[in-house]
Amino acid sequence: MDKALAGVKILDMSRVQAGPSCAQLLAFLGADVIKVEDTVGGDNTRWEQAHIDGVDSVYYTIFNNNKRAITLNLKTERGKQLFEKLVLWADVVLENFSKGVMERLGIGYSRLNEINPRVIHASIKGFGEYGPWSDFRSFEVSAQATGGAIASNGYPDLPPIPSPIGAGDSGTGLHTAIGILAALRQRDNSGEGQHMEVSMQDGIVNLMRYRLIRSLSIATPNERPGDRGGRGIPMIYPCHPGGSDDYVMIHIAGALWETVLAVIGRSELIGDERYFTEENRAERGDEVLEIVSGWTMKHDKYEAMRALAEAGVWCGAVMSPEEVLSNEHLSAREMVVDVDDPKRGTYQMIGCPVKLDKSPVEIQPAPHYSEHTDDILTEMLDVSPDELPNLRRQGVIV
Length: 398
Ligand SMILES: CC(C)(COP(=O)(O)OP(=O)(O)OC[C@H]1O[C@@H](n2cnc3c(N)ncnc32)[C@H](O)[C@@H]1OP(=O)(O)O)[C@@H](O)C(=O)NCCC(=O)NCCS
What we know:
Layout: E1 9-12, H1 18-28, E2 32-37, E3 51-52, E4 55-57, H2 58-61, E5 68-71, H3 77-89, E6 92-95, H4 101-104, H5 109-115, E7 120-125, H6 140-146, H7 170-190, E8 195-199, H8 200-207, H9 209-217, E9 236-238, E10 247-250, H10 256-263, H11 278-283, H12 285-296, H13 301-310, E11 315-317, H14 321-325, H15 328-332, E12 336-341, E13 345-350, H16 373-380, H17 388-393
Parallel strand pairs: 1-2, 1-6, 2-5, 6-7, 7-8
Antiparallel strand pairs: 3-4, 9-10, 10-11, 12-13
Helix pairs in contact: 1-7, 6-8
Bound molecules: coenzyme A.
C-alpha cells in the first residue's frame, strides 16, 4: 500500500530534536528522508546520554527512525557539489542551524532556489530569522523560558519550573511539519517552492494560548497554579500504596463534582452549598483534597482511574515514564513497539501518534552513522564506486 507521503523527498540536515522529530514524523507518514550529517561525528545526539550497546544513544535513535543517513562535508567543494545534486532530487531541505550557517555554507535559500525552484526550505531557529533576538541560539528550555511557559509552571512562592514535555523542540517539529505540508500543497498549484521558518519561541507562545487567556482577559498578574490547575481546585490525589508516583489526576469541574462524590461514596455531599460552585471548591480546596483523598488512598491509581473514568469523570493515573513503556493500552495502540536492528539488537521504540487508515506506519530503526553514504552516492548521484576511497581520504565523506 502506498504511504500518504509516498514520493515526498526530504533532505534532513537537522540535528538534536526540533528538526529530526519533524522529519521523523514525515517519514512515518511515508516521506523518503535522507539525513545529511557532517564528517566529524554527525548529529550531536548520537553520542549524548544512554547508549544501546555502545552504538548511538537512545537520544539519537528516538528521533531518527525511518530515515537513511549520509555524511557529506559541506565545507569541501566536492561535498557541496554532491549536496547540490541532492537538492535537485529533494522536495524539502530541512535544517535547524543557527542563523547565518546556511549562507556561510553557500546554500542559503537563494542558492537552493537557484538549484531547484520547486524546493521548500524549512528553517527552524530559536527566535526566528528576524526580530531583535534572531541571532541568539536556543534549545528546549530557552524556548519555554521566553515563551511564558516556565513562569507559568510551579508553585506561587517557589521558583518556576521547566516542563518535561518537549514543547519547545518537538512542538516546533510539529509546527514545521504542518508548514512543510502546507508549502507542498501550495506548490501543487503554483509549481514553486518557498522558504519557510519556524521560531521555537513562537511555537511555545502558540502552545501557551490557553494559559494566556487569563492575562489577555482579566489582566491579573501571573500566578503559578502549583498542582491545583488553572481553576484553583486540587487535581492530583494520593493513592495506595503511597509511592512517589502513586497519584491520580481528577478534573473536578462543573457537574463532574457530583459524579465524583457518587463514585467515592460521599453522595450526602451532593448539593452541599459549601462545595456547590467551582469557586466554592477552589476556596475550600484543602477540604476537597481531604474528601477525595479519603477514597483515593484506599485504591491504587489504576483502580481509582477505572472507577472514575467508567463513570465519565475526566481523570488519569499519574504514570511514570517506565509505566508508560509497559502500558498495555499504549502497546495495543502501537505507541510502544519493538524494533530490530542487526547491530543494536531488539530495542523498544516510541510509535507514531498519527494513525491513517490508508497509510499504516512501520517503525524502522534509525540509520547508523553514514550507513547509506555509498549507496546514495553510487545509486543516486552517479558517483563511481572507484571514487569512494578518494572521497574518504579527502574527508568529503566518512
Ligand atoms: C542547536 C544550536 C544551539 C547548536 O549551535 P552550534 O552547535 O553552535 O551549531 P550552529 O548551528 O551554530 O553551527 C553548526 C556548524 O556545523 C557546520 N556544519 C553542519 N553540517 C555540516 C556539514 N555537513 N559539513 C560541514 N559543516 C557542517 C556548520 O557549517 C556550522 O559551522 P560554522 O559555525 O563554521 O558556520 C543552534 O544550531 C541553534 O540555535 N539552532 C536553532 C534552534 C534549534 O534548533 N535548537 C535545538 C533544538 S533541538
